[in-house]
Each structure stands twice: as C-alpha cells, then as structure tokens.
Amino acid sequence: MRPGFLKTIWQLARSCSWYCRLGVLSSGAIAFTALPSPAASDIHVQFGPVQTRVTVDDLATFAQTGQVAPPLEPWRPLLTPAVQQSLQRRLNVEPTLRDRFLADLIGTSKGRPFVTALAQIAPDLTPAMIQTALQTAEAHPEGVTAVTLLESLPDDTLTLDGIALMRLLAQLGVSQLEQTALSRILDRELLSGGGSALTSELVPAQPGPHVPQRWAVAFRDHERDRIVPVDLYWSEHTTGPMIVLSHGLGADRNFLRYLAEHLASYGLTVVALEHPGSNVDALIQSDGAILSPEEFVERPRDVSFILDRLADLHEHSFFLRDHLRMDSITLIGHSLGGYTGLVLAGGKVDPIALADFCAGLEVGASSPAEWFQCAATEAQFPPESLADPRITQLVLMNPLAGQLFGDTGLHTVKLPTLFVTSTSDGIASVSDQQLRSFNQLAGPRSLVAIIGGTHLSVGDPENINPALTQVPLMPEHPPTETTALRTYMKGVVLSFAMQQTPQATTYRPFLSAEYAAQFSTSDLPLRFSDRLPARVDRWLTNRDRLARRLTPTFKGIASLMHLELIDAQYRLANLRRNTVAQAPIQPLDLAARIAPRPHGPFPMANQSPFTRASDRPAESPPSAPHSAN
C-alpha cells in the first residue's frame, strides 16, 4: 500500500492504448477481453474487403525469441524490442481493485467512450466478458501478459476492425509525438541558467541545523464522520511558517516524507495529512467508484478541518505552543493534491464546462487524469466557497487540474505559486493538465520544468511501491536517476517557503535558472522560469481554440504541426547563425567590398553620391574665428 496506485489503475484501463501506440494492434485490443478456453489461434484484422491474418503462436514466438515470422513481416517496423518486452511483461493488479475498476468503467457514464471504442474495434466482444477474461489469465503459470490474454480467447478466431483500430492508433501516436515535441521545445527555450554557478555560503539543499521530530496523530471530524491521519514534523527550535502536504490519488502522507523532514530541519512545521477517501486503503478496502465524486469536495475540507484542530492545539496545548504559525501557510500538493491546493487558494470549479468536455472525451486522445477529473461531474459542490484564507502560498507538483476550472476558474488564484511540471508525465499530460493551468494563474508564479520527468519523479522512492515503476511503456526513472532532482526539490521548495519570512532576500537567489542548472543531469535536465516561452504560450492559446472547433484527432494533428513549425523555425535560425559564423567573409565585410563608402563628407540630400569630383562646387576655405571685443 504505497503511493502512486493511480498508475496501477490506469495500467489496466490503458493497456490497449499503450500497446497500440507501438503497433501491437491485436494484443492491445485483447487486453480486456480474454476468456476461458478454447484458445484463439488466429487474429483477423479487417480493412474493408481486405483481411490480414496473424497467429497467436507467431506473437508468442516473437515475445520469447524476437524472431519475426512471415505473417508478421508487414508489422516488422513496429515490432521493436520495447514491444517484445511489453508482450512478456506481467500485469500485476490486485483482484479487488481490478474488479472495482472494471465495474466503475463499465457501469458508469465515464466508461461509455471505452465501451464504444471496444465495440467498434472488436464487435463480437462485450464488456461482460472482461472480468472473466482476466480471472482466466491469472491462472496461467506466466500470469497476465498480452500473450496469455490472447491465448485465453473463447473462439478460434478473433476479428478486429482495422479501420477503427488504426483510428485509435493515430490518436495515440499523435498524442505521443506532441508530448515529445513539446518536451524538446521546453528543454531548449526555457532558461537554462547559462551554466553560471551561485556563490553563497548558504546551501539550502543540505540538511538544516535542527533535528526533525515526527508526531503521528489522527483527528475525527464528527460532522463528516471522517478520520484524517496526520504526521506532524517540527523541531525544538521551530520558528518558520507552516507547510501542509496533500498527496495524490492512491498515495499516502509519506509520499513526500524526504521533503517534510528537510523542511523541518530548518525550523518549519510540516503537516502531512492523509485524505481517507482517496488514499491506498480507500482504493483497496472501499466499495464503489475508484475516485468518489465527493472527494473533490471533501479533500479541501480535510485541510481546513486539520488547520482548525491545529489552531485549537496551538492555543491550548503546552506541547505545541509556539511551534505552529497559522498566519502564513504554504500548501504543497501533488497530482490530485494540486487540485486540492487550487481550490483552497480560491480556484472555482466550473461543472458546466467540465461536463461539456467529458461528453466529448475519446479514449485515444485522453490522458488518465482527464478520465479521473470527469468524476467531478457528479460531485455536489456547495454554494459557499471552499477557499481557506490561511493558505498564502502554493507549490503544485504535477497537478490534476485540466478542465476542472474551465477557462476562467483559476483567474481568482492570486497567491504566489511554484509550479512543478514533468514533460513525460503519462498520468497528467503536461499540456492539458499542467501548462494550461499554469498559464491561467493570476498571481506571481514560477515554473520548474523537469525535462523527461514522470508523474512520480518527485516522490520519495522509499515510499513508492517498486512494482509501480515497471508499468509497460510508462516507465518511471530508477531512484539513482532522480537523486539530483530530489536534492533540488529540497532546496527550491525551502527557498520558496522562506519567502514568507524575514530571510526572503537571502533565499531568493535560489529561485532561479542558475540554481536549477546546478542539479540538471543528462537524464533529467531542469529548467526554471517565471513564464512560458512566447511561442509555447501562443501554441497553448491556439490549441484551446482548436479544441472548440475540431475533433480530438484533428486537434492533435494541428497542434503537432504547430509544434513542429516552432522546432523548424529554431533549426532554421540556428542553421543561419552557424552559416554566418563559419563564412570566411562576414556580411558587413562583404557589404563594404561590394559598395564601399566614399571618403570625405557624406553627400547632402540634393547631391548624388556618384557626382564626379569635377562637377562638385569648390569648397570655401574655413573662415577665421572672430575675436571677442
């Protein structure tokens, strides 16, 4: 029971999408549809009157040996080593969670796009077959893999609609290419710090002078019948402001433990709370939907409730007196915790805009976060605001925001915000969920871009289930590759929190591109800026306009073309600069040789520079200076 279970959930729902993305059309389409024996032996992909045949044995041979049999030759360019590994990789999902997820997917309006897509691709298969299929595959000695799912099909032949399948593949491919192009552009155009190093005796990424202590406690909200666990971090010399940590869906209060301990060592009080309706226990032990609509209301209330209880303790408890500063609170939210922070900071959810978006949601053009945010369409938001004025700063990490606030709901968020985005986030897309939200904030803001970072890159590796880092085609970085990133997060988050103290000026230099550059690695380059590059900003604006006029597929294609144009403009300008730099004669020298400037005074406006010297009037000798009388 570790954080990041959101990723395990989506592994089940998106297995078709990710396999199709690399071209394993058959295995992707079957990932949800295996049934008991007799096993399927042939897969027929129908393209109108034309039909191609692939055998399951040929796929199994490729998965085991890498050899491409003659029937698979047309697909050879797509059968990469990554595809081979994905065919063999086991899908480990707890049965209870699996059954809940499938029931939620099939039995609610959120799952209608998936059911429709499945019916178009494989007309002979029904959603009712899904649960039995997975149970059958689990009994296989190799567990649930793409190949064993194929081998569990009920009939000798499975027929797929190739046109529908290719349409889904096109959506997935465009989405992936768009993310790759955007990552490349952000890496290049955001400030990199120029390689200069900061000179300071202060090293905010190193442990502070105080020994952090931790107190675990749980508070019961009798009005809501809800118990909220809390880990309180502080030191004997606590003088700094308070920090509140809000985790994401399927996580717990330990997700950012390394950061909590670091901040407490500098005299800050850290409150790491756990949302009981969307933590790991809720996913495994509760009934109903994976993400309850009520969580979009109860999560902000959890934070306000805990702050109320801590205010009481601060006033009446000798143990915590002088350890809690309730006048300046920085909220740090990851994923769904980012949504929680935005609501507490005054963000206004737009149920109408969200419902319109979710009505047109398509399987291939959507990230997991976009599916999960649609649960909020069934939430009962109170007429009064959920904002809490005690929250004075925000740190948002890979936030789930997307369409929840419509086009204007974040314009009311005016608090200073440190926004952390990862360009290879397979859960909350960098464009729709993150950069779009960053651009809508009205207050002072700074952006940290983790080039190549994923949804869990900022988390504490000791509190992330290792199995979650092995999701096929959505890999997480191993802990050794994120060490420098976590060190940077310690320094930059501390420096941001200290902006509410008299030491703000001392820590301000660390909120810079130069400081981020010190922790950049080849695996995870880091960029820091207070705004998006102008060309990326225009791209985001145009992308939103296209979303209102085009289908998701055509919107993705147009968006990708715009990004490729930005990239081509850069490469053309770079080629021009290199050509000029390597030329034996520079442009100014060449111009001087072609049209040398004449010596002497520059000709008057009514005098041609080409007038012969003999035709020019004689110059009068200079007059003698007058003497002063």
TrEMBL record:
Pfam families: Abhydrolase_1, DUF1400. SUPFAM superfamilies: alpha/beta-Hydrolases. Residues 619-629 have a biased composition (Pro residues). Gene3D superfamilies: alpha/beta hydrolase (3.40.50.1820). One of its GO terms (molecular function) is 1-alkyl-2-acetylglycerophosphocholine esterase activity. Residues 1-31 form the signal peptide. Keywords: Hydrolase, Lipid degradation, Lipid metabolism, Signal. One of its GO terms (biological process) is lipid catabolic process. Residues 241-374 form the AB hydrolase-1 domain. It comes from the Bacteria. Residues 39-161 form the DUF1400 domain. Residues 596-629 are annotated as: Disordered. This is Alpha/beta fold hydrolase. It comes from Leptolyngbya iicbica LK. The lineage of its organism: Bacteria, Bacillati, Cyanobacteriota, Cyanophyceae, Leptolyngbyales.
